[in-house]
Amino acid sequence: MLKYLSITNYALIDHLEIDFSDGFSAITGETGAGKSIILGALSLILGNRADLNNIKNQNSKCIIEGVFDNGGLQLSEYFLNNDLDLEAETILRRELLPSGKSRAFVNDTPVNLKMLGYLGNRFVNIHSQHQTLQLTDSLFQLEVLDDFVKNTELNLDYKDVFEEYQVLNQRLAELKELSQKSSRDEDYIKFQLDELNSHTLDPEIIQDLENRAKVLEHSEEIKLAISEAEYLLNDGETSLLNNMSKLKRVLDNVREYLPTNTDLTDRLNSILIELEDIGSDINSMSSNDDFDPSELQSINDSLSGIYTLLKKHHVVSVDELVELRDDFDNRLQGIESVDDNITATESKISSLEKRLTLLSNKLSTKRQEGAKDFAGSVLQKLKQLGMQDSNFVVSISKKDKFTSTGRDNVQLLFNANKGIEPGEISKIASGGELSRLMLAIKSLINQKQMLPTVIFDEIDSGVSGDIAGKVGKIMKEMANKHQIITITHLPQIASKAKNHYKVFKVLNDDSTNTTIEMLSEEGRVEELATMLSSERVTETAMNVAREMINDH
After folding, report:
1. CATH says 1-129+458-519 is which class?
2. Residues 431, 432, 435, CA angle at the centre, nearest 5°?
């Protein structure tokens, strides 16, 4: 609901402020007083393009600000997704700078024009002879039928399932694309994995192999050294063990005379025992011929394979080869599971299709059952609006696939003349007929989300007398469900409003300024009497104006 509108430095307006309330409000004023200017300013915070020529004082910026009640519009998700502060009231502001720049704000947060337009059109629905294209939109036609037959809850249930259905279909398409790509990659990954698995990728084992290879590569040197060591330890009169034994005997012979040095013989005895053990080990090594050339070749072949893999995969450690092997293994398992995922996803989609079929059939049944009553209600409103010979039909056909609204194609068909088959609204209705048809349909809409605030901009052109009164009556009835603001030149309509505003010009010495005021009870009588009179306001006109107000 529009609660407040402020306009500064726009066209003929220096500054004006308007407070609006719920219910039915009428705006009147002489031709050229500036009613359309106010509507033009309002359209700027609904996201319309700005004309810099409308800045009154080119040295100052133009500011349009509107305050709206959020009640019942379910905007929390949009505000959250766009990082906007959600309050009980939403402030939309548009600033036009003389430099040519334009800025938009929602609750003082800068936004782009698209966001401003989205929110603006959720708050306000402007209906004029030039803005009835909505009626020719197939989605709007289906929505008004759904609103009439009270399909709201069923639609929500259907849309929840449909959204899941779309997500799964997108997932299925991705899985199938992945499957095709994986099929191309599978042989390559298997080859790489088999090659890695054909080698022992254990860092400790590889270290042992490298150490063993070094031993085998120096086997001749080792044999020679062992042979020489054996000779030095055991062979000849000058062998190490023989000399050590002699040294021990020499010291043993004088041991009793050298009591302070008796530990020398003990130490020599320990050394001699250790040398004998070393000699025994060397003898064992000499007798153990563990230097098979074929073993070295086998080890070198294994190590060469590892080194080739390191170079091939551009890594420097066996641990990295292990990580690579595990990655190939995971990718291969992923490829093998894609088909399982495809099967599972197709099964879920099939289950959702059954639910969608059930829900879409329920939607379709309610639409089919309510279409005739809806058409009859529209025709009744049209007759009230003076279109006695009009014909209106709701045509429902089946679509070949699920959509966000079910599987129905709803088309509203209309003709204002007797004896002519109804046809597409966009091709057959004139501007005036379209306006009255739109009024008839909008008067049947219940959801505040579809019609929060409705502004009628002189759609009463071409009607008068009793028909004008009926137009006003329909607007007053609509005001029980929505905030209705009408810009009118007909007293029969203005008299039915709860609040009455007058737009007028104030002439100064060097400028003209448009302003607006809410009329008092007596002010309403004077304004209606003026609208009823051709020239001079008579007492009779004043009395008629009072009667018109009192009748409502």
Report:
1. alpha beta
2. 90
| CA nearest to 370, candidates 204, 142, 526 | 142
280's enclosing H/E stretch is helix 262-287
- Sequence ranges of the domains in the chain: 1-129+458-519
The pTM of the full predicted model, rounded to 2 decimals, is: 0.66
- One-letter amino acid of 252: D
266 by Cβ neighbours in 10 Å (0-12 / 13-18 / 19+) ranks as exposed
> How far is Cα 34 from Cα 129, in angstroms, rounded to an integer?
18
Tokens 């009192």, residue located = 550
3-state secondary structure of 505: strand
Work out the angle at residue 20's Cα, subtended by the Cα atoms of residues 108 and 51, and round it to the nearest 5 degrees: 55
Find out whether 27 and 516 touch, Cβ atoms under 8 Å: yes
Mean pLDDT to the nearest integer, 88-100: 92
Q: Which of 155-164, 317-326, 367-376 has the lowest mean pLDDT?
A: 317-326
Q: Can you say how many angstroms the Cα of residue 500 is from the centroid of all Cα atoms in its chain?
A: 43
Q: How far is CA 42 from CA 5, 53, 134, 482, 503, in A?
A: 8, 16, 19, 18, 15
